[in-house]
Amino acid sequence: MELIRIVCEEGGASLFCRRIVRTRFAGWLGTLKLCERLKAWLHVEWWEIVMAQLKRPTASAEEYQVDEIDKRVLRGYQQDASLPYKELGDVIGLPPSTVFDRVKRLRKAGIIKSIIPVLDAERLGYKTTAWITVKIEKGADCCEVADRIARMPDVQEVHEIVGQYDIFLKVKVRDNIDLHNLSERVSKTDGVQEAFSMVGVRTVKEDIRLNI
Description:
With 212 residues, this protein is an alpha+beta fold. Helix content is 45%, strand content 14%. The chain folds into three domains: 1-55, no CATH class; 60-118, Winged helix-like DNA-binding domain superfamily/Winged helix DNA-binding domain (Arc Repressor Mutant, subunit A, Orthogonal Bundle), CATH 1.10.10.10; 128-199, 2-Layer Sandwich (Alpha-Beta Plaits), CATH 3.30.70.920. It is built from eight helices and four strands, in the order H-H-H-H-H-H-E-H-E-E-H-E.
């Protein structure tokens, strides 16, 4: 019993879960008496984390189900992914070992797709944000046209849509001359019938974070 208490106090919930299954105490975990003792030693929130870790089945990337602990990690990670796991854990109220374990799982599952800096486009000289609507030619393959446009480096987003137009683009360029040149390249792409540009005047909000 002393070993379990030391692991709980020093190792954090995830480390505790990994170690306990390797000890002879694993067979006792299902007993009410041991559960009550563990719950008394642990903060209630930590106890919930421990039980969630133990009950969590191994899943493939496609089957991975995000739970409330994952959401807490993701909310904190979206605010500042540069924080060390200990500091991030302090911010969101989780032990660093749990944060490390969850980030590793979320990356493996493809839910965290990449970790990149968010740049100030205007200070780097990209002062024009614009949207381009594209109508494709009759009989053209929308997916193929969208893929061709997506390879253009100044195009940030490419969406296939339903309605009067077929493809919707978001672009960032240095000025209106660059926008004109980009629009011309889009218009001349194989399968494009016509393209129209809309220029942003003032950006009020631009945020890639999800409201998890």
